[in-house]
Amino acid sequence: MLKVALTGGIATGKSTIGEMFQRHGAHVIQADRIAHELMSPGQSVYDKVVEHFGREILNHDGTINRPRLASVAFPDRIQDLNRLVHPAVLDYQDRWMDKIGEKDPNAVTIVEAALIFEAGGEKRFDKIIVVRTPFETKVARFAQRMKLTHAQARMEVMRRMAAQLSEEEKARRADYVIDNNGVLDHAQEQVDKVWSELQEMAKLARV
Questions:
Q1: Does any domain span residue 207?
Q2: Is residue 206 part of a domain?
Q3: The domain containing residue 190 runs over which residues?
Q4: Tens-digit pLDDT profile for residues 183-200
Q5: What's 95's domain CATH number?
Q6: Residues 72-82, mean pLDDT to the nearest whole number
Q7: How many domains does the chain have?
Q8: Residue 144's closest CA among 132, 153, 155?
Q9: Do the domain assignments include residue 172?
Q10: What is the pTM of this model?
Q11: Span 100-132, pLDDT tens digits
């Protein structure tokens, strides 16, 4: 089994790239969805986050309002949030990959996560793929996703980028870099090439 991390900055299109790998046969999980599950009422992570950031981050039904939490955490308190959430997310990821490996020794498992390097999780993986995107494309995507004006999206993207490693540094530390500038055919060609190599490595990992 091969353990792969798929990472990149905000609005680089990581999920789109992850879906391309999934269609090839990769087992893909999103760290953001894991965190969402772990921060639901009744979970220990939920209790820690609410205790630290206050009940003002909650919706009326007691669930965490994630945009409100992000607004409170970025950029000055993001390390506090990471410290509370990431250990549990990393443990979940490890257990998930191990289960896949038990069922399929030739599997390629991919964890999609924005903060692989920032969370100190890179050593858990055999290979790391970084997705990068031009700044203006990020802003346009984020504006569309969050229903913000271009100016609002630009400010929020810049604010979140300030709390992460630069795209250049992530690319330098990656095994593969996929340029996702919005041309899907170009992205697909890169994914196809990387997938072919990952499959071969997964087979060799059994030897």
A1: no
A2: no
A3: 2-201
A4: 899 999 999 999 999 999
A5: 3.40.50.300
A6: 88
A7: 1
A8: 153
A9: yes
A10: 0.89
A11: 999 999 999 999 999 899 888 899 999 999 999
Q: Which three-class secondary structure string do you get for the chain?
A: CEEEEEEECCCCCHHHHHHHHHHHCCEEEEHHHHHHHHCCCCCHHHHHHHHHHCHHHECCCCCECHHHHHHHHCCCCHHHHHHHHHHHHHHHHHHHHHHHHHHCCCCEEEEECCCCCCCCCHHHCCEEEEEECCHHHHHHHHHHHHCCCHHHHHHHHHHHHCCCCCHHHHHHCCCEEEECCCCHHHHHHHHHHHHHHHHHHHHHCCC
> Does residue 149 fall inside a structural domain?
yes
Q: What is the mean pLDDT of residues 57-86?
A: 92
Query: Would you say 115 and 8 are in contact if contact means Cβ atoms under 8 Å apart?
Result: no
Task: For the chain, report the end-to-end CA distance as a whole number of angstroms.
Answer: 11
